[in-house]
């Protein structure tokens, strides 16, 4: 891990960083419009930023917000990860995952008396979906277990809250009616992974419209017991991470 991370409130993100974030989105996604990007950003609470310490260049980020909803009379909270992107030349560096994991653990500690907490992810590509099996023992949907019962109810409630009529509850997929941005083919192409990785194959089969911008809705309970050993190795790795 050679990159540095920082957790910044959205209101404190300067214009130069917003421009760089937008440029990173354009690099990895097609049909990205500045107005939509800014609208999505303003709907989040914090940004996890990743920088190259050699030149302080912003090379990755992920936007986050805590959602609240009611599911069958129970109050539910979920950490929702929005736009997430890394400069391709830095793929494989764990600084973003390290910062996100520590942020999630801090959120758990701060709200441990407030009821169940989940991670809600809408994934446009297999790379973001792969964070689910990397970080969590239990999550859905997955190749060996479909969401049923309470997890499915929570997943559908969050999907509808985020996407409204664009959310397809049968497939647990967001199908944007307007021209949504989509992962560029050189970024989205799974190559041989689709033959050797059941999680990648499942994502492609479950969300066949991913190249057009469809998003697979994913859910994992946020609890210390649900993090994998691999997640804790990433979380506990030594790396600079500042919080504003």
Q: Percent helix among the residues?
A: 25-40%
CATH topology: Aminopeptidase
CATH classification, class level: Alpha Beta
Number of domains: 1
Word description of this protein:
There is one protein chain. The chain has 244 residues and is α+β, with helices and mostly antiparallel strands. It has a single domain (4-243), classed as 3-Layer(aba) Sandwich (Aminopeptidase). Helix content is 36%, strand content 27%. It has helices at residues 15-28, 34-42, 95-110, 126-129, 131-135, 149-163, 185-188, 193-196, 198-206, 229-235, and strands at residues 4-9, 29-30, 46-52, 57-71, 74-86, 117-123, 167-168, 173-174, 182-183, 215-221, 241-243. The strands form 2 sheets. The protein has a 9-stranded mixed β-sheet with strand order 7-8-10-6-5-4-3-1-11, with helices on both faces. α3 packs across α10. The longest helix is centred in the middle third of the chain and has 16 residues, at 95-110. It is globular, with a radius of gyration of 17 Å. The two termini are 21 Å apart.
